Structure formats: structure tokens, C-alpha cells
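Exercise 7b. C-alpha cells:
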């Protein structure tokens, strides 16, 4: 199968990510302009790339340094100490993994919130919009690894989960001092307990952050690659921290539709067992460069 060059730039974001043929129609009509084979330079900030296998849109996040963690009064102890982290550039999903993208590679849609509206109180009215645009939830960390294995078998092997440090850097619009992903106005950027109506919402409905990423605060918790270690920040390497060497649980980030504002902050950390499936947990994929 032919592969997209890392230099193929989508000219506009796909309005219906992962929704059958409509996702394919978002690929640029003009010829691609790949980077020269001998050029190791990074793409320009904000470059978009669309995977031909799933229709998933990725945003280029330039490398840089930032202060990870929080010293604010509402910060948890595992968000300290605040420490400087330097990262190489990477690709990350513009949106959380959707049900449409999931079902393209996996045999079953195991989402708790499928075509019929559900809340904590059971079934309700039919969900508005196309089910394929809703974020994929009720998947474990192990499930995401299986999805990645299938995607990499059909692709070029560069797809992965972001590290916790990459996730927070991207959530903060490239390491800015933001409380929520995109600013301090939570209702503008996030679905959470007070505005979600006890359900997920189609990806991309809230405003993006400074990198053009949607739903990094709220809607769904997102699995990242790291083992959880509450004391990791005190011993984290300064450059490209890979996370703890081992642990009992995997890190989830971002908060979800059912939590209070404090839990959708950019710096808030949480965790779950790697086999745990829950209707508030999904994922966002990353890609390595080059």
C-alpha cells in the first residue's frame, strides 16, 4: 500500500474526520509536495497531515521547552515539582480518536455512547449528527495498543500514543501557561460536568487551542503511553522524558464530560489499569518524526 509522505500537507482540516468517503474527500486535490529525501528539517508549525488509512488528521507540534506541572493552589501533589522539559517535534491528532476511525480497523464498535443517546441514566433520544464523529470510548490502554498494531501493520510503523510530556505540551498550545487547553474560559474549550448533558459530543465542536487541537480538555480522558508514578516529576529527565520504567497503572489525561473543572486542567494527572474500559476514556494518537 502506498504511504503518505510526511510532507503531504492537507490544505484544510477535515470537517468530518473518519466518516467514510467524506474523510477521503478532504485530502488535497493538488499534487503533494514532499520534503526532499535528504532533508531532516521539521515541517512548519501547524502543518496538517492526513492518514490515507483512517482519514485521521494530525497537526505538527514543533519541538521546544516548557514548564511541566503546576504550582497553583488547586494542583495535586503529583503535579509537582514544576520542572523544565525539552521535547523534539512530533505529530499529534487534531481530534481524539473517533468511532468512525476505530471501526475502520477494528471488528467491533464497543463504545458505550453509540448511535443511540445514552447518559448515566440509560438510553434517551437519538444522538444528533453522525455517530462516526463521536469520540471512541470504552477502550482500554491495551485496546489502543491493538489498534496501533493494526494501523502500523498497514502503515509505516510511526503511529503511537503520545508520552505524558508530549500530551501536556500539546495541550498547553506548545507549552504556554494555560489553565485549560486553549485558555481560561472552560466553556469555550471543553465539555465537562456543567455543560455536557452527561454525554460525549462530536469532536471539534469546542474551540481549538493555539495549535489547532480540539477536545484536549474535557469530552474524554485520553490514554497516554506512560506508566503512572506520582513522584515521577521529581526524577524526570529534562529531555524527552519517556515516563516511569514500570508501574501498576497507565496515565490518562484531559478530564471528561462528567468531571468538575479542576480535573480538565492541562496539568491534571490521573490513571487507570491498562485493561480498564470505561465510557469516559478514549485516546488521541501521535506520530513520530521523521
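Sequence design result:
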Amino acid at each position: 500500500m502506498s504511504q503518505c509522505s510526511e510532507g503531504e500537507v492537507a490544505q484544510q482540516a477535515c470537517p468530518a474526520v473518519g466518516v467514510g468517503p467524506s474523510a477521503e474527500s478532504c485530502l488535497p486535490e493538488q499534487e503533494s509536495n514532499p520534503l526532499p529525501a535528504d532533508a531532516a528539517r521539521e515541517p512548519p508549525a501547524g502543518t496538517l497531515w492526513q492518514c490515507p488509512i483512517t482519514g485521521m488528521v494530525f497537526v505538527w507540534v514543533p519541538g521546544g521547552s516548557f514548564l511541566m506541572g503546576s504550582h497553583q493552589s488547586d494542583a495535586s501533589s503529583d503535579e509537582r515539582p514544576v520542572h523544565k522539559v525539552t521535547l523534539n517535534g512530533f505529530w499529534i491528532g487534531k481530534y481524539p480518536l473517533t468511532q468512525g476511525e476505530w471501526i475502520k480497523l477494528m471488528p467491533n464498535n464497543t463504545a458505550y455512547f453509540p448511535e443511540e443517546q445514552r447518559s448515566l441514566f440509560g438510553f434517551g433520544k437519538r444522538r444528533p449528527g453522525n455517530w462516526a464523529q463521536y469520540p471512541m470510548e470504552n477502550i482500554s490502554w491495551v485496546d489502543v495498543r491493538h489498534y496501533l498494531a493494526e494501523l502500523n501493520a498497514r502503515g509505516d510503523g510511526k503511529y503511537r500514543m503520545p508520552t505524558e510530556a508530549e500530551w501536556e505540551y500539546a495541550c498547553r498550545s506548545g507549552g504556554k501557561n494555560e489553565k485549560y487547553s486553549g485558555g481560561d474560559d472552560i466553556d469555550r474549550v471543553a465539555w465537562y460536568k456543567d455543560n455536557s448533558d452527561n454525554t460525549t459530543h462530536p469532536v471539534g465542536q469546542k474551540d481549538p487551542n493555539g495549535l489547532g487541537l480540539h477536545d484536549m480538555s474535557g469530552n474524554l480522558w485520553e490514554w497516554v503511553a506512560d506508566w503512572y508514578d506520582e513522584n515521577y516529576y521529581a526524577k524526570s529527565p529534562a529531555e524527552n522524558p519517556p515516563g516511569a520504567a514500570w508501574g501498576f497503572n497507565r496515565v490518562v489525561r484531559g478530564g471528561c464530560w462528567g468531571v468538575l473543572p479542576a480535573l480538565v486542567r492541562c496539568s491534571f494527572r490521573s490513571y487507570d489499569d491498562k485493561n480498564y474500559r470505561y465510557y469516559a476514556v478514549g485516546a488521541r494518537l501521535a506520530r513520530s518524526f521523521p
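Instructor comment: The first helix runs from residue 20 to 24. Residues 61-287 form a domain with the paralog of FGE (formylglycine-generating enzyme) fold (CATH 3.90.1580.10).
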